[in-house]
Amino acid sequence: MNIWREATAWFAFGGWLLFVALYSLRARWWKTPEGRNVWGVGLALTVALGIIVAAYTWPDYELRPVIVPVLYTGLGLLAVQRTVQMLRRQRQRRRESR
After folding, report:
1. Which of 1, 13, 25, 68 could be cross-linked to 49 through a Cys-Cys bond (beta carbons 3.0 to 4.6 Å apart)?
2. Average pLDDT over residues 64-70
3. pLDDT tier at 1, thresholds 50, 70, 90
4. pLDDT tens-digit profile of 49-61?
5. HEC states along the chain?
6. Is there a contact between 55 and 64 (Cβ–Cβ < 8 Å)?
């Protein structure tokens, strides 16, 4: 067991957990597609880091085979959503600059 790796995983998990909690409470993230995406990505990273921390704490926990594929699918969907948002913004800016 590498204590440094475990400690940095806990640090990253805590940092993202704090961000998601504060962003959820203090920002109006649900009002814009970008805000919802930032919230979703933050939540997905928090879950991913939570899985890593859980693996250090409980190496053979039963839900891991279920949670990991769901997380990967969610991360992929968030990437697609973000790409669509970027392309829409670029098209909108091109139209406005004509």
Report:
1. 13
2. 86
3. low
4. 998 898 888 877 7
5. CCHHHHHHHHHHHHHHHHHHHHHHHHCCHHHCHHHHHHHHHHHHHHHHHHHHHHHHHCCCCCCHHHHHHHHHHHHHHHHHHHHHHHHHHHHHHHHHCC
6. yes
At a CB cut-off of 8 Å and minimum separation 6, what does 86 contact? none
Residue with tokens 């409980």: 58
At 3-13, the pLDDT tens digits run: 888 899 999 99
Residue in this structure with the two tokens 């899985």, named with its chain if needed: 51
Amino acid letter, residue 81:
Q
Contacts of 64 (CB under 8 A, 6+ apart): 51, 54, 55
Residue-range definition of the domain harbouring residue 92 = 3-96
Under the phi-then-psi rule, with left for phi > 0, alpha for psi from -120 to 50, and beta for the rest, what region is 32?
beta
